[in-house]
Amino acid sequence: MSNEQKNDAQEAAAMPDWSAYRGVLIVIEQRDGEAKKVSWQLLGEGRKLAAKLEVPLLALVIGNEVEHLAKEAAYYGADKVYLCEAPELGVYRTRPYSRICLKLIDDVKPEIVLFGATGTGRDLAGAIATHLPTGLTADTTELDVEPPPSRLLLASRPAFSEKMMATILCKQYRPQMATARAGVFQALPRDETREAEIIRIDSLMPEEEIAAQVIDFIRDTGNLNLEEADIIVSGGRGLGGPEPFAMLKELADALGGVVGASRAAVDAGWIKHEHQVGQTGSTVRPKLYFAIGISGAVQHTVGMGNSDIVIAINRDEKAAIFQFAHYGIVGDLFKIVPAITEEVKKRKSLFGIQIPVTELASQKPSQQEPLAKSV
Question: Is 254:235 a contact under the CB 8 Å cutoff?
């Protein structure tokens, strides 16, 4: 036996026995009875992981009057759904939610637990990992598993100022836990014929035992949510300054979308960070994405590469963004963008309706042959 084989054998012998831990658990995040899209996206990815490990895909729904979300979890791929409903769970608070999760993990023993990398998901996952204790990989953008016998979760995320991807393993503890960005993974098609066993579990903390009290919940209606947008019009260094973003907003408004930006534009101070798409911004999966004056650096493309349709507008015909675009226009963006905006407004006025993005998505061309046109 070689030294390498001896080391592998010694490492295997030293590993704890985790045979009691089986299954992939997705914690469904909801607010006011509406699930976050990242939860359904994680069920889609969890389905792949569970298939490779030959285990069931589990879901946990916590809230008040949220039985409909347990059924939705089944429609999106869960084999078994755990449901905890109580009035005191109507609004997220760390202690009661984490106690329910900890009790379920102790009883069910899933080998993998995944959360959305949202404010709530990060808070809940961190609290659970502290109490177990176990490892937690934050803001993952790639997930995979090693086949048995190791069954290790391969959780990858950008590292070293986004210059490389780091794959993080949790060899000594279970469950293996990670939070994942919204827009990275693809949800399964919603299928109402799917059925799952729904198991009700008890709330563990009555209201009088919960120290934190919610006095009011104020929504910031002006807050931009790129991750939920179906149409995004993004601008980059090619805009040359902050003023042209008003031109992009006009196009976005005409299409019913929102304005995004590259890191270069944000770093230059042309637009706020909440508009940034990319590794250090938001990861998005819109039906339609405009990349205007954006070169196509890796930092940006990893954040929008899963868009259904990408339209790139750039003066440089050799710009890397054209490798990701389904449609490309080479020319002066200051002439092209207003022309597109005017045409959109004209058609909306003519037909009295907004152009349905679903029709655009159904006509998606092959990603293998990006089309570039000169203007």
Answer: no
DSSP 274-314: GGBBSTTSB----SEEEEES----HHHHHHHTT-SEEEEEE
Higher pLDDT, 349 or 115: 115
Give the Å distances, CA to CA, from 9 to 4, 18, 42, 106, 146.
9, 17, 34, 29, 18
For 93-107, 163-177, 315-329, 360-374, which range has the lowest pLDDT when averaged over its residues?
A: 360-374
Residues in Cβ contact with 364 at an 8 Å cutoff, skipping those fewer than 6 apart:
308, 309, 326
Is 234:259 a contact under the CB 8 Å cutoff?
Answer: yes
Distance of CA 252 to CAs 228, 258, 318, 338, 344, Å?
A: 15, 5, 26, 11, 10
Residues forming beta bridges with residue 372, ordered by sequence position:
328
Give the mean pLDDT of the chain: 86
| pTM score over 0.85 | no
Determine the Cα–Cα distance for residues 319 and 314; give it in Å rounded to an integer: 7
* Strand, coil or helix: 158: strand
Q: For residue 287, give the nearest of 347, 342, 231, 327 by alpha carbon.
A: 231
pLDDT in tens, 207-256: 888 888 887 777 665 567 788 888 999 999 999 999 999 999 999 999 98
3-class DSSP state of 325: coil
In the block, which residue shows the tokens 């006095």? 215
Dihedrals phi, psi of 36, to nearest 5 degrees: -70, 140
The sign of the dihedral angle between the CA atoms of 166, 171, 172, 176 is positive
316: left (phi over 0), alpha (psi -120 to 50) or beta: beta
Place of tokens 């009088």: 208
Rg (CA), the chain: 23
The rounded distance, in Å, linking the Cα atoms of 29 and 373 is 43
pLDDT, one tens digit per residue, over 24-64 is: 999 999 998 999 999 999 999 999 999 999 999 999 999 99
272's tokens:
């706020």
How far is Cα 179 from Cα 161, in angstroms, rounded to an integer?
19
